[in-house]
Amino acid sequence: MALKAKKSKKPPKPKRALRVQYGALPYRIGEAGMPEFLLVTTRISGRWIVPKGGPIKDLKPPKSAAQEAFEEAGIRGTIGAKPLGAFAFDKTLADTGSTVPCEVWVFPLLVKRQYKNYPEAEERASRWFTPEEALAALNDAGLCELIALFTESLAGRKNPVKKKKASSVKSQSARLHRA
Fold it and tell me: Hey, where are the domains in the chain?
């Protein structure tokens, strides 16, 4: 399957951010054997994005991402121990309306269960997308590239959450733990 994204083998390197967040890329394998991705809307602008949020005290980055996925989308599953990569965006602050650069480290989350009731159910919409639909719905090129690369990697592996190539993730993972 050929998805349209930047022609790069490595995830994009985000610009230096003032804030770091951890996000989950929730996915499942659909009936036709193709991946589907769960996206949520932001609270302020209503654009589509992956569940994400700031570091949670006493939780490691993957667990922090999984907790955000539950709070924002009502999902539980198996979170990958290593990030797929990172993307950068300008976060609009609700209280002032100003923006700050933000870097989001994204972990794959194989969804096992989706709940109807969860903390932010009344504040956000969520929807399952095919890879092509997800790429069309998202406004962030860096996130689109991560999804395109992950979709391609799913074609060659049975369980991408447990097995992860170390090549592009090693430097990003080391950078993540230094932050």
Answer: 19-178
